[in-house]
Design a protein that fits this description.
Blueprint: H1 14-21, E1 27-34, E2 37-47, E3 50-58, H2 67-81, E4 86-92, H3 96-104, E5 108-117, E6 122-130, H4 135-146
Parallel strand pairs: 3-4
Antiparallel strand pairs: 1-2, 2-3, 4-6, 5-6
């Protein structure tokens, strides 16, 4: 919630987070931590045979450190594990760094949701990546991972 309060648009409420976390069968939520400090988080949900990134946010103090790439990698890997056909999300139309990140993962603009971020008066760019279940997508994820210096450790959390 500390990070969510720092985003430019109206963030998620405690209730929304708790509701999402209560659905482990068709959702995955991850956090990025450095030491004991949470520096980012993200989530993906399964919708039919597609995966939809519901949220991805990084503490502004940690922008530029590839935290968002690591989070997106975990979410995209889950989409691959679910054998999804597509991976989709909405992103603020003016958020060029995030759009560039999603393009690295093979997502491309597919439409606009007018005034999606109503509190900012900003549209959302809808982005889609197809053939997420294909080996080529897994290869793309492997290339992205090898491009990130250091290592990422994933730990399961019993809910």
């Amino acid at each position: 919630l500390r990070i969510e309060r720092q985003v430019p648009h109206r963030g998620w409420s405690t209730g929304l987070f708790l509701g999402e976390l209560a659905r482990p069968d068709d959702r995955l939520y991850v956090v990025a931590a450095i030491g004991s400090e949470v520096v980012g988080f993200g989530g993906v949900m399964l919708v039919a045979d597609d995966a939809h990134v519901t949220t991805l946010s990084v503490d502004p103090r940690w922008h530029g450190h590839r935290i968002g790439t690591r989070i997106m990698l975990a979410l995209a890997r889950q989409a691959y594990a679910w054998e999804c056909n597509a991976l989709t999300l909405e992103v603020r139309a003016g958020n060029e760094p995030a759009i560039a990140l999603y393009r690295r993962f093979g997502l491309a603009p597919a439409g606009i949701r007018k005034n999606y971020y109503a509190d900012l008066g900003e549209d959302a760019l809808v982005m889609w990546g197809h053939d997420v279940h294909a080996r080529e997508f897994a290869d793309r994820l492997a290339r992205i991972e090898t491009s990130i210096p250091g290592s990422t450790r994933a730990e399961g959390v019993p809910w």
